[in-house]
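Record type: ASSEMBLY
Status: queued
Input:
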Amino acid sequence: MSNLSLIETARDFNRFYTNFLGLLNKAYLDTPFTLTDARILFEIGSHGGISAVALARDLQLDPAYLSRILKRFRAEGLIETNRDPADLRSQVIIVTDQGRETFEELGRRSNAQIAARFDRLATGEPEAAVSAMHTIRALLDPAAKPAPAIIRAHRAGDIGWIVQSQGRFYAEEYGWDLRFEALVAEVAGKFLANFDPAKEYCWIAERGGINVGSVLVTNGGDGIAKLRLLYVDKSARGLGLGKLLVDECIHFSRQKGYRELSLWTNDMLETARAIYVKAGFRLVSEERHKMFGPEANGQNWVLDL
Amino acid sequence: MSNLSLIETARDFNRFYTNFLGLLNKAYLDTPFTLTDARILFEIGSHGGISAVALARDLQLDPAYLSRILKRFRAEGLIETNRDPADLRSQVIIVTDQGRETFEELGRRSNAQIAARFDRLATGEPEAAVSAMHTIRALLDPAAKPAPAIIRAHRAGDIGWIVQSQGRFYAEEYGWDLRFEALVAEVAGKFLANFDPAKEYCWIAERGGINVGSVLVTNGGDGIAKLRLLYVDKSARGLGLGKLLVDECIHFSRQKGYRELSLWTNDMLETARAIYVKAGFRLVSEERHKMFGPEANGQNWVLDL
DNA sequence: CGCATTTAATGGACTGAGTCAACTAATTCG
DNA sequence: CGAATTAGTTGACTCAGTCCATTAAATGCG
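Status: finished
Output:
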């Protein structure tokens, strides 16, 4: 459950942008086109040779309504439709030269409108606005293809991110109190303070510039490596990132000459446990505790390398 | 004249957001309200006692259309209208209890919808989206007054946020290495681990659901309070938040019976120094160091309480 | 293969959101 | 005071968008 004030702010923004777009779209009234007309013409103009169903699907329009609009466009000579030889029920819609002219004119007007808006801004401000638009779109547009995840070493801010994301996650999901975040901060802070690149490492999984997972290997002494703070964000579950991160740890620990890789976890973390089991870890001990408020079952797992 | 590709991107975003809002607004169809109805009800519900002209102006509606909608609302018992004693042509519109109930129900649905959208995002992503919305709005809405900042105690994730934001900021701005983030993690982690509410506190400045600043008071023993980790995010500078946070620390330290408030800072942080000077802190010592890579000038400041 | 089902496209019939013009009543301004 | 303006309302209308039924092609299944 997201913070309520975030949601309020988002609603507020939506109200604002509804108005803002409303104003922009009024401009279409200076042409004989409605907003829907313009959207359709734009869609046909960009993907040449689209079918009516596809159009209706993409723009969420009623097929009957769309059919009428296309008929009008055809009558006005803006588009041509031909039967699709591959499926004679379907038709292929293309813009005529005149249609392209109209389409481009609409584009020019729309551009001019935004340019007018941007012209009132200070140097650098349009860039800031557009960059913010990118951010929103990448986050809210499911069709904006999710960037592939990469795994890399930690850098500035990452350790803080680990503390924040896990602190928040365990609080929201399991009701753990701030003692848990304190523990994470201590573990992660010590890792950073005493970081020994020869024996230790931190992996961050990142997607489109946003951190989505992490794990540490720290030196426990006596040839024992410790896997700590494994975490994969909600948004990136099911991609096998957890397994990937654990595999990195195992590979690294072997390579650095450790004889054993151990970890501490809690039994309600079932996905994590499945990963450990599959990787060959064995459960060596278990104890109930209330370290972070609610009762939980702590477990120690070990993998012989 | 703005760069064309910026404009194209902005148009692209507008198309996307038109769709996005369209989807969200479909939900109003589950209620007997249209989007316009909902906007009107929202507007009346928020500013109690508004007049019809003001409403028509703010929402850019036809007065005739608005009049009819208000008539309907009146018939349904959602609002009451009384003549404005100051101008008998005008009327004062207020929501009835039932209207308020409806208004709040709409709000809850709208919230739930956005929450559902946000729930699919990663930790920090809703914040990123909302922060981008702020950016756009601040730039495009001439009437936008920035959301007021509030100051509150820390909760889950905040300590991690402190580590992350400062770790990243000092690395980007001054080239400090990870030893700095390690120090922050240690300080913040210890604060959380040994937190003594009777003598210590953490303040988080938040604006529209986004953390934008922080400061801690920790117990240094011997009647000395320590002000630590003062930070105000770039996006919220110039609002006096730094001063506000420091004032909180001073007030708290006095109230808890400390005799002295001390802090350590570096001299390139000029805004912070100005705040300390103004608050009455005096510089007691100074030493050059390379604790975090680049050479810097560490300073100890003290305020007698 | 043939029959039932699904899908693309369209026309008929309708609804209701939003617009425009005309009017009343109160207010302001010269 | 009278002319012009403003707040609000009603009547008459338009047209964007929806729902249902129909045709023709395609697909699925025994």
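Annotation: The longest helix of chain B spans residues 4-26.
Annotation: The first strand of chain B starts at residue 79 and ends at 84.
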